[in-house]
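Here is one chain, start to finish.
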Amino acid sequence: MPDIELIEKTKLSENTGIIDNMLNEFVEEDQVYKDKETVINVMKNLVVRERFQFKVKRSSATRYHLMCVDDNCAWSFKSSAVFKANIFKVRSYNNNHTCGYGERYLTQRQATSGAIASIVKDKHVNPKYVYTANDIIEDIQKQHGIEVSYMKAWRAKEIAMAMIRGSPSDSYKELSKNFYMLEQTNPGTVTKLHKSEDGCFLYAYVSLYASIKGWEHCRPIMVVDRRKILPLAYAIVDSENNKSWEWFFVQIKGTSGNVMRTFKKHHKQLKDIFFALDRAYTIEKFEYHMTEM
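Its structure:
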């Protein structure tokens, strides 16, 4: 008797088309999916698009079987794991419904927040494009004829954004690596990462070498929290409070101590001149006040 496990491995080696796209629209027998989760999402998205319902007949670590919401309908789907791996294969798929229209279209319980998120996630790729929960409600209604509550649309939006951008906690974990690469590719750049006692992120500081070098050719005046010609440094903090500001100024002083000492020594004299510069409406006036410094 042939080794079933060996046969399965041979078939997979011949077919490299392992599906990992949760929005895959074409389902047929013998398809191979990356894992059970991918199969679940593909089928949920399928029924949302085709506007019918299914119920789970059997679900385990190695099997995922579905049937139509109508017990008398012939529609069915069976998949299972391949040779004790995470990979799932479609064993049988009958896509023909023998039930009545009303039975499978009356409601749509498979239109979960996760399924909707998979459908609309591409709308969140561009961070400049504002795509609201109300937009999701409108699009799902127009494209799929399904009524979605505001809370479900809101949850779908949050899930979709996490799919595209990842979670904030995962992003913060990458900061140390990113700062290291920033210093390696921009020698002279200063980065600082400050964490709480339990290892949680608090503050981050970046001063690029190009900005530090540029200060050698600038007037010794530093403006905080305003957009000017040459940004010396920037920080990410939990909120603008006394502790975060103090930490930021300590890093600034460490980055450009000479600039800070000059600034502090001549603060009273420079204050009036700076505001006069800020109010100058002509080049002549601006140049005049610059020479005063």
